[in-house]
Amino acid sequence: MCGIIGYVGKDKCIPKIIHGLEALEYRGYDSAGISYFFKNKIKTIKAEGKIVNLKALLNFNEESYLGIGHTRWATHGKANKTNAHPHSVGKFTIVHNGIIENYSELKEKLIKEKYVFKSETDTEVACALFDFLYKKNKNILETLSEAIKILKGSYAFGIICNDDANTLYALRNTSPLIIATDETGNFIASDVPAILKFTNKYILLEDNEIAQITADKIVVYNNNLEIVKKNIKTFSESYEAATKNGYEHFMLKEINEQDKVYKNTIDYYFDGTIESLEKNFNFLNKFERIDIVACGSAYHTGLVGKCLIEKYANIPVNVEVASEYRYKNCFYNNKTLVILVSQSGETADTLAVLRKAKNDQIKTLAIVNVVGSSIAREADYVIYIKAGCEIAVATTKAYLAQLAIFSLITTYLGYKNGVIDSKELTTIFKDINLLPNLINKTIANYETYFKIADKIYKHKQIFFIGRGIDYAISMEASLKLKEISYINSVAYQAGELKHGTISLIDKNTPVIAIATDKYLLEKTISNIKEVKARGAFVILVSNTTFKDHFYDEFITIADVHPILQSIIIIIPLQLLAYKVAKNNGCNIDKPKNLAKSVTVE
Ligand code: M6R
User: Per the structure, how many domains does the chain have?
Assistant: First the structure.
């Protein structure tokens, strides 16, 4: 989604703002712009498309020490220069992340006050509102405080005003915004990578807080304009951690980090004993039913979590996508735990579900990567995955770390509920320890997957099939492939194909079949034979070897306890998707139309 960066200090602001915007590129955008004070006047330069187009219009040596920049991911109005941020109305110039829900109503009122709008954006309306309020009270802080009471929706604003050439203002509700300091001055940013080259110390702005920032001072106010004391946080990763470190793409780097990510995540909660699981997860015993709610890949981890928890812990689990769950009748009660899974911890729909559940006094657990994110802060319980900074839009290591958490939770609850006995527990513990090495070996086998990718990358559609947990992983494998390669891909329950979808199978249609669940193996094989008989090019992923050749390509994977199996299965399919996208010349880390963190509904 959109990115914000602002700077005020001793250094020239344009190079710093442009660096920040480039560091935020991974969030996804379609235009970019910058506004800065030059000789006490605000200058604005915008460009459609990539930041390189904006850079071509800028003088990096301009004597300017205060400015704001933005990358826009279009919501209201087309992706063009007029709609690009910053927007200026009267004395105010602003950049904005989020959505102003009551903008139409505000626009009508402001038009009656003789405001004329150039763009189709909600942001320009918010800017006009600031100007309108300021004309009455002549005080910037009071203007912003009053605006909070009027604006509805999610927003993070970076604001400058003609009447105050030394100060950067910021405001937030729901959309994240941080303030940071280095030895030269102060920053605002929508995300930590924007400032990581300069500093790893930052302050998190909370909902309805207003920041007033000069070169040497940061003051944060609440909505009543009382000063709020803020804690300085430290982002634990280095700038290098947020760079490609020699890999061609962030996605490839992140896939290759998965052995370490798995180990870091497991080691944080498990020391080889059931007692460590008891200590970290005993709060789960209170609940008789679980609702897992998330979006995209995080939803897919929920599907795996459901298969595991229902089978091994005997607890009913309902999994839903957040954009549906937030508006439906939820049959939860005080014995239900609502689990929100989110890499970013800022996904708007998932956050809305969290707030809905809390409002209904239902207990919530967040499984989140980004420390201090909104979902992590607002949930009753938090389990952090230890994936580190994930930059590629297509998630890989965070998905795998979420699976690792579900494997631990299932092991704990399964043992506690008497489904897993001591002997089985010992096998699981043994496999947990083997896994980093097995993950590593699976990644090292990449050439096998790449050769298969070379055979299928020109196809217009690719199917995934599986049953049970293998189907849940098919969903993620299919998403990975389509989001980065733009090839149409659908995942089906293998047994469901003959009820319609099998009519799409032609000679050589690639079908990637996952068959690891021993209980369902025979059934899955029959379904694979059905597509093979209709000419499909079958790529089988399995932990078992077969005498029969009912497939065209075979990806063999390590056979581990079923609670851990999904963690291995996904790796070849991530690498296969990567190579298919690469062969097709796609923008792997920043696929078109997508954003890393979806902070609008
Ligand atoms: O940050 P979140 O985990 O809440 O994000 C959820 C989805 O937007 C995300 O998983 C998305 O589907 C990814 N592009 C998948 O690779």
Answer: 2
Q: Which of 26, 73, 191, 295 to mutate to test the pocket of ligand 1 (most atoms within 8 A of CB)?
A: 295
| Same domain flag for 235 and 276 | no
Q: How far apart are CA 221 and CA 300, in angstroms?
A: 40
Which positions are annotated as active-site residues? 2, 596
Q: Which of 35, 46, 39 is nearest to 68 (CA)?
A: 35
Asked if 557 and 306 touch (Cβ cutoff 8 Å), the reply is: no
Residue 493 beta carbon below 6 angstroms from any ligand 1 atom? no
- CATH at residue 540: 3.40.50.10490
Is the Cβ atom of 298 under 6 angstroms away from ligand 1?
yes
Question: Given a cut of 90, is residue 1 above it in pLDDT?
Answer: no
Cβ density class 252-269: b for 16+ within 10 Å, e for less = bbbbbbbbbbbbbbbebb
Domain that holds residue 562: 250-583
Specify the pairing of strand 488-493 against strand 461-466.
Answer: parallel
Q: What is the pLDDT of residues 51-93, one digit of tens each?
A: 999 999 999 999 999 999 999 988 778 888 999 999 999 999 9
Do 235 and 254 lie in one domain? The reply is no
Residue 578, helix vs strand vs coil: helix
C-alpha 22 – ligand 1 centre gap (Å) = 21
Angstrom CA distances, 191 to 369, 371, 513, 583, stand at 14, 12, 39, 31
Per residue in 567-581, pLDDT (tens digit) is 999 999 999 999 999
Of residues 494, 448, 446, 444, the one with CA closest to residue 468: 494
Residue 600 domain flag: no
CATH of the domain at 165: 3.60.20.10
- For the CA of 597, the nearest atom of ligand 1: 1
pLDDT tens-digit readout, 9-34: 999 999 999 999 998 887 778 899 99
Q: Which amino acid is at 180?
A: A
**Domain end position, chosen among 197, 213, 242:** 242
Which letter does DSSP use for residue 65 in this model? -
* pLDDT of residue 497 exceeding 80: yes
| Ligand 1 atom closest to the CA of 350, numbered from 1 | 4
Residue 325 Cα to ligand 1 midpoint, Å, equals 16
Residue 314 within any structural domain of the chain: yes
Give the model confidence (pLDDT) of 91-137 as tens digits.
999 999 988 999 999 999 999 999 999 999 999 999 999 999 999 99
Task: Tell me the torsion sign for CA atoms 33, 188, 599, 50.
Answer: positive
C-alpha–C-alpha distance, residues 538 and 510, integer Å: 6
Q: How far is the CA of 280 from the centre of ligand 1 (A)?
A: 26
Entry pTM: 0.78
Query: Cβ neighbours of residue 503 under 8 Å, at least 6 residues apart?
Result: none
Instruction: Supply the DSSP string of 231-288, one letter for each residue.
Output: --EE--S-TGGGS-TT-SSHHHHHHHTHHHHHHHHHHHH-SSSHHHHHHHHGGGGG-S
Ligand 1 close to Cβ of residue 373 (< 6 A): no
Nearest to 557 by CA among 570, 573, 568: 568
Give, using CA atoms, the residue closest to atom 16 of ligand 1.
394
Judgement on whether residues 177 and 322 belong to the same structural domain of the protein:
no
